[in-house]
Amino acid sequence: YKEGDVIKAEIYSLTREAFIYYSDLATLINNDGGMFSPPPANPRSNLSNGAMGYFQASAVDAMEITVSPEGN
User: Fold this and answer.
1) How far is CA 39 from CA 23, 27, 32, 34, 54, in A?
2) Closest Cα to residue 15, out of 50, 39, 44, 48?
3) CA-CA distances (angstroms) from residue 10 to 47, 57, 60, 64, 72?
4) How far apart are CA 64 and CA 54, in angstroms?
């Protein structure tokens, strides 16, 4: 980063069920097809009629800082 750049960080809350969904999705995406890989399957979803994805609402906490000269 250089002086004057603005850095923004956001942290979102996540339910246990949403965490499991995203964890299962990451496992599916990173599946290399090796002998120890799980069989491909759609992650469990909270949507109906075969739709893929996960509906959620989250709380968010955000912080923004501007990069200042070193030592200040």
Assistant:
1) 15, 10, 10, 10, 21
2) 44
3) 26, 15, 7, 9, 24
4) 28
What average pLDDT does range 26-31 have in this prediction? Answer: 85
- Residue 35 φ/ψ region, left for φ over 0, alpha for ψ in the -120 to 50 degree band, beta for the rest: alpha
C-alpha 8/C-alpha 12 separation (Å) is 13
Q: What is the pLDDT of residues 47-70, one digit of tens each?
A: 988 888 999 999 999 999 999 987
Q: Supply the DSSP string of 3-21, one letter for each residue.
A: TT-EEEEEEE---HHHHHH
